[in-house]
Amino acid sequence: MISSLLSAAAGHSVDHVPVWFMRQAGRSLPEYRRIRGSGSILDIVHSADLAAEITLQPVRRYGVDAAILYSDIMVPLAAVGFGIEITQGKGPYVKEPFRSESDLARLRKLEPETDMPFVIETVKLVVKELRGSETPLIGFAGGPFTVASYLIEGGSSKDYIKTKTLIRTDPLLFDRLMDRLAVMAVDFLTAQVNAGAAAVQIFDSWAGVLSAAEYERFVLPPVRFIMDNIARLGAPRIYFSLSASHLLGHIATTGCDVMSVDWRMPLSAVKNQLKDTPLSVQGNLDPTYCFAPWEVLRKEVLQILAEGGGIGHIFNLGHGVLPGTDPKVLHRIVELVQSVAPENLVKQV
Amino acid sequence: MISSLLSAAAGHSVDHVPVWFMRQAGRSLPEYRRIRGSGSILDIVHSADLAAEITLQPVRRYGVDAAILYSDIMVPLAAVGFGIEITQGKGPYVKEPFRSESDLARLRKLEPETDMPFVIETVKLVVKELRGSETPLIGFAGGPFTVASYLIEGGSSKDYIKTKTLIRTDPLLFDRLMDRLAVMAVDFLTAQVNAGAAAVQIFDSWAGVLSAAEYERFVLPPVRFIMDNIARLGAPRIYFSLSASHLLGHIATTGCDVMSVDWRMPLSAVKNQLKDTPLSVQGNLDPTYCFAPWEVLRKEVLQILAEGGGIGHIFNLGHGVLPGTDPKVLHRIVELVQSVAPENLVKQV
User: Looking at B32, B70, B150, B215, which residue is catalytic?
Assistant: First the structure.
């Protein structure tokens, strides 16, 4: 039997709307905190046994409809030696940020088999564990803009001044950087799918800080390149961005199969904007809702299911699980989503 | 002769598109840094002479088409004794955040004449200085959601968990808080207009973190209350929010005269969405563009002027002037905007 996630991604009917959570693995789980040790995220990722175990923890605890590889969007950059550190809760730190053309030389082609055998091994271990269940593993990569912003800013940013200034000062250099990162994403995703991942998600979280015009000029072509070059793998392609209500029309043309949106617009309005491009949608519970009283949260989950219409909808948060989220709440959301018959959803609006 | 800003706000023809900058006064100006001293923002605001001088500095330096009162959206809260500190560059800090119904008692009615005579005095000093010029003074207040978020979070926030959790846990208490803040905004704005401010802007910067449904339920009514209750003053009402592309339809119904938008959507697309509500628009240069080479920035300014169409457009940034912005660049933008004949703008697209 095909998994509900893969069916929903293809717009086919499902016996329940599939549900998983961005950042479902990791810091919010006590079983993660017990085994993670004191190392950096990169240390964990380098240990296939540990990373596989962390990937599987939320599947066991919540019964979510997909596992997502425990890793980080900067892992391929670390693997080619760009000089990345990733500390828990603080995001990536780039020792020598990308500044000029000479830094392109630091972005050699990723050779997954030799640069990150641990990632391939993790995927294989997870897929082996999941064999016999209907639960697919989602592989992932960072969107080229989001990865570029870390490389250029040196870490998290509020205003993205350096990134945007590079775009406007040397647009062709920015294009070349984006091209390298797009190829790297293709290689990273291909390796994960070849090792057994059944779907992929591109996390382009920060692309929403760009104007529609800049997104179209600088981000759309490399994202389309990624989508085109992984199409032959047959794994559904999910594209996620945040605060991107102004970009939906462009994102619809990237070639993605599923558009993952935040909570700002109701899913019915998103679908309505996409009516010429029948994509599936993923989302879109505001992760702060997990701190609301259950009855309020329950109503919101049902509302989102109704907005999603039961077909072509993967239930998820609009952004990652927040630190401090009670795992019991996530478990109740999974049970609720899986308990609703999709054929009843259209009537509930 | 009526000022270009007031004409543009009313949708009338202008001899040039008016231009001013959010945060044009303050930290980016050397003449500000020379006189500000080492006190907090509140210390400066309490000195009418100093605040008036700081308000006027960018008018002298740039020849902008409006002054905006140098103050802070939290000043009325400080004035009623809520316990606010505002440090340069770090934003407001609330010593005892809003937690429960009992905190409503800490939000007594603002009596501008006795609670903040220094603000009224500052407005009068500025207006006196500007007399004879066509330059109006813009008064302002914080949008109730944005002010509420500071009161509840205790300061700046990334995820607004506490604010959103209050909305969902005790919506009626949140409504009461918003009502108090709306009345406070009306009293604050009325005092400024009565003292001579010719237009007002409501800074609701963080409202864009809400879903369209939550904005409609919790923010739209109090904002509409403010707009309705200051309408009789006859001062154009500008409403600013950030990352609010999903809220344009709702914002159009607040009763504002001018919608101030960020850089995410082109002004032509904003105007197109508002075609049933002929509002003026304000914006929308990405403030990071001030770090771009002049030729690139120049092209973007001209593009924005073209998108604005010359009528019903006030040129501004999409958010405040960033620290580190070169005042010379802002000056060149003013000169450029003021040099373009509005009647030529439609053809330039």
Answer: B150
Name residue B160's amino acid.
Answer: Y
- Residues paired with A86 in a beta bridge: A92
User: Nearest-CA residue of chain A relative to B167?
Assistant: A292
Sort strands A91-94 and A84-87 into parallel, antiparallel or unpaired: antiparallel
How far is residue B32 from each of residues A210, A262, B36, B316, measured CA to CA in Å?
Answer: 31, 40, 6, 21
- Most B CBs within 10 A among A170, A273, A288, A289, hence the mutation to make, goes to A288
Alpha carbon of B232: minimum distance to chain A alpha carbons (Å): 33
Write the DSSP symbol of residue A320. Answer: P
Mean pLDDT per 10-residue interval, chain A, length 349 residues: 92 97 94 89 95 98 98 97 88 95 98 98 98 96 98 96 98 98 98 98 98 98 98 98 97 97 97 89 98 98 97 97 96 98 72
Place of tokens 């990722």: A45
- HSE (side-chain half, CA atoms, 13 Å) at B228: 10
Residue bearing tokens 């999603």: A308
Residue A187 catalytic? no
Q: Which amino acid is at A304?
A: I
Contact B265, B38 (CB under 8 A): no
What CATH architecture is A4-344?
Alpha-Beta Barrel (3.20)
Q: Chain A contact for B299, CB < 8 A?
A: no
Chain B residues 138-167 within an 8 A CB cutoff of chain A? 159-161, 164-165
Q: Please state the domain extents for chain A.
A: 4-344
Contact: A293, B169; criterion CB under 8 Å: yes
Q: From the list B161, B243, B322, which residue is nearest A322 (CB)?
A: B161
From B169's Cα to the closest Cα of chain A, the distance in A is: 6
Distance (Å, whole) CA A202 – CA A186: 10
Q: In residues, how long is chain B?
A: 349
Is A268 at the interface with chain B, CB within 8 A? no
ipTM of the complex: 0.95
B10 touches chain A (CB under 8 A): no
Q: Sheet with A258-260: list strands edge to edge.
A: A67-68, A137-142, A199-203, A237-240, A258-260, A280-285, A313-317
Please tell me the pTM assigned to this model: 0.96
Spatial contact of A155 and A101, defined as CB atoms under 8 Å apart: no
**Residues of chain A positioned with their CB less than 8 A from the CB of B261:** none
Q: In tens digits, what is the pLDDT along chain B, a chain of 349 residues?
A: 689 999 999 999 999 999 999 999 988 899 999 998 888 899 999 999 999 999 999 999 999 999 999 999 999 999 999 999 998 778 899 999 999 999 999 999 999 999 999 999 999 999 999 999 999 999 999 999 999 999 999 999 999 999 999 999 999 999 999 999 999 999 999 999 999 999 999 999 999 999 999 999 999 999 999 999 999 999 999 999 999 999 999 999 999 999 999 999 999 999 998 888 889 999 999 999 999 999 999 999 999 999 999 999 999 999 999 999 999 999 999 999 999 999 888 644 4
Q: Is there a contact between B165 and A243 if contact means CB atoms under 8 Å apart? A: no
Distance CA B43, CA B37 (A): 9
Helices (H), chain A: 4-9, 30-35, 41-46, 48-62, 75-79, 112-115, 117-130, 144-153, 161-169, 171-194, 212-214, 220-230, 248-251, 267-273, 294-308, 327-339, 345-348
Which residues from chain B sit within 8 angstroms of residue A286, using beta carbons?
164, 211
